[in-house]
Amino acid sequence: MTAFSGTGYRYRIVLSGECGSLVAALFTDVTIESARGRTCVTACVQDDSELYGLIHRFEDLALHLISLGELDVVEAADTLGRSPGPPVSSPRAGDVAAAGVHLT
User: Fold this and answer.
1) pTM, whole model, 2 decimals?
2) CATH no. for 9-98
């Protein structure tokens, strides 16, 4: 896991499929892990607008968003099932729905 520059909020975004090489080519300042049919993207954003912009870019690429969660500063970003981690705070469902994102 790499450290992010600046301040902001860290999010873990899990996408369906192993699309790490595509995401790495198109997105900067993100950490990407692909395994077991999923891609985990950890990104640092400054505000809600930047988060929604990132989500919309995934939608534009027809990537299926499986989950979205805000990370604590000290929390590890291992989402791919290799080790259990502390609970992740839930995204604000109303905000995500307002952005037109459907979580399954």
Assistant:
1) 0.64
2) 3.30.70
